[in-house]
Amino acid sequence: MRIRADLPPPARDLRLDLFRGVANWAIFLGHIPNNAMAWITIKNYGFSDGADLFVFISGYTAALVYAKIMVDNGFIVGATRLFRRVWQLYVAHVFLFVVYLASVHYFAHNFDIPHLMDQFNVAGLMDRPVEILTHGLVLTFKPLNLDVLPLYIVLMASFPLVLRLMLGYPDWIMSGSVLLYFLARQFHWNLPSYPSGDWYFNPFTWQLLFVLGGWLALGGAARLAPIVRSRLVLVLSGAYLVFALVMTVSGLIPGAGAIFPRWLLDLFNPNDKTNLAPYRVLDLAALALLVVRFLPMDWPGLKSRIAAPLIKCGQQSLEVFCVGVFLSFIAHFVLEMTSETLLSQFLVSAAGLAIMTAVAYYRSWSKQFETFRLKAPAKRSS
Predict the structure, then answer these.
(1) Within a domain: residue 369?
(2) For a FRET experiment, which of 134, 265, 314, 376 has its CA 20 to 30 Å from that of 98?
(3) Residue 281 domain-assigned?
(4) Domain count within the chain
(5) pTM (predicted TM-score)
(6) How far apart are CA 180 and CA 161, in angstroms?
(7) pLDDT digits (tens, 9 = 90+) for 305-358
């Protein structure tokens, strides 16, 4: 197959690491119920949130990493490398799933907080432990806040074929992704969950952000450059983000939307996250355009001490994400057992972010030794 996509340059774009770190931090803060610190994240000021950012950047980086491998070594080698990553994601999910279930069960029963079992969707563990574990292993059962990683696994598992076709027909694959997105929304396509319902993150719609990220990495961004540089598009993007801010805040603060007609507010509240409403995609696209326009790859701030923790968390995204999901439950437990004052919320949030950052730095340091070979002891002379 002829390669028509543009392979990305080898230089690392720290902006991807920075915003994936931002996504991990935002997901952690947002997963703590009633956490006032979540007000510093983008989900309260627009239609999209950390999950949108995480999936989009994951698709972009997957294309960056595996496209050249597939071109240089063939489809089989590239697919093998991708499936190895899928296996790593699956193992991480299973480990997190088991630890999460055990922790919720332990704290709920040993500290007499039985409502945690229902709140975190693990109440069935008592009556149907084998079924719960079995469905967890096949990704159909997901406790509260464990939805993103299964989505990521499914998207990465389907990416070898998508990537190979995208290398030859990038625009056709992007068009097919858009078509699948609208068909899934129109005909309510989704994957079933156990014991009832569907996936919270519909893979048939959320694939749009993942494929869009890959398409942009493989030449789509270069073809869109004239649009990105357009002053009119910049003004429209800014206006849309202001509109998203007003609609979101109006839905969150009682009485704030009294000046708007009810039908207008109802279009955006509640925000359709499961099926990735089109206004969420436009919101993320507008944010990405502003970043590209005003935050170049060589921006000095990317090498500052302030940005370093976020960048490091983005570079070690899987480990940081898993730790963050678990810590969000621990933070909620601590707040329930102590106090839910603003100071307490700030302290547990800050402690969680500090632990996530420490894990990122440790994992970065430890990876240096994964391929390190100890020198053989020198032979003693007789």
Answers:
(1) no
(2) 314
(3) yes
(4) 1
(5) 0.93
(6) 16
(7) 999 999 999 999 999 999 999 999 999 999 999 988 999 999 999 999 999 999
